[in-house]
Give the backbone structure.
Amino acid sequence: MSCDEARLLIGADPLATTPALEEHLATCAACARFRDEMRSLDADIRRALERPPDIARLRSAGPPAWRQWALAASVALASFAVLAVWLLRPSDTLAHEVVAHVQEEPRSWLATQHVSAQGIAQALRGAGVALDVTSDRIRYAQSCWLRGHYVPHLVIQTARGPVTVLILRHEQVRARRTFHEAGMNGIIVPAEHGSIALLARGAGDLDDLAGQMQHQVHWLPDAP
Amino acid sequence: MRNSEPGSPVSSIGGGVPAADAPITRLLESMRPELLRFAHWLARDRSIAEDIVQEALLRAWRSRDALKDPGAARPWLLTIVRREHARLYERKRLELVSLDEALETQASPGFPEPGGELFALRDAIMRLPIQYREPLILQVVGGFSTEEIARELALSATAVLTRLFRARNKLRVICGLTAAPDAAAPESLS
């Protein structure tokens, strides 16, 4: 087997192997190194493809300059907070993933304009829910990929500041549970179908909003 | 796109669920997220991906008797999705997503996204021309072998190897590695 043939096979499928390829690699350090590189790249490709593409998110405009500094500070603080609570991280995987997801979208907290009805409809698309919440309270609305499903990710303005709400049709919880991580307080409450997660930065009365959401989220029977 | 075929058991398609069809209904529903991810990477547009999956599930339901072995459901469904994707473009010649415009914002300094390298890689995969992206998605997301991809795309196995090699070679450069010399044989149809 020549180097060209070996590299074609490795490049096409870095995990595949044949006796002839192994024989070549045993005597060709350059091709062996090429395979190591391609296997590492392939692991990254597989990780990259674990979630659907984010074109919708990429289409949205980046934040204005002053917010970039606020964002950087928020990220730095959040990173410090993550480090601080690392040893106390919750064993609750769902709560942990909810927090991790919200950390991935720090600009969601910064929104000040209310979302249009069309924007809300897009965020709810395919989630099997309808909302009674008036749109002027919703400052952020996206349809996000979480645990194998698209879920509505909302930020609702309350008297005590913004609260993130994730409507989790496919996640069942038996009872209300609380969590504290990365500077955020959260609760997950059971709902008619699935559950609803709410998070606030710092202190905040989430139970009141949770109760409202349990009444204002309507679970549609025709859901994916 | 919603369909309301009477009597269809797939809840998102509509209709009642006869008890005998409950297992296939559950199977189709359980596969939906994975089919959607697969279709989304192929189509690069979520709305189109949802339409593709909806049509594919409907086709799968109609031809459910052809599925003798539930263990073979995954490649069967992925194949239906891929063909539905190809059929959609053949039929409608859909307006293409302006990917350059969509991705321009990524270059904005401070645009929040963790894992910069992975983000760049995801963009690079989205930017791959369909002839390279499709076999890569079939292989990595679908788990198809070279021979299965060749059969599905009506290409020779060598042509599939070449396309997969070139796809990864393009991604190598994005990740800061030197492109390997392209000594792949010219592609040929099967």
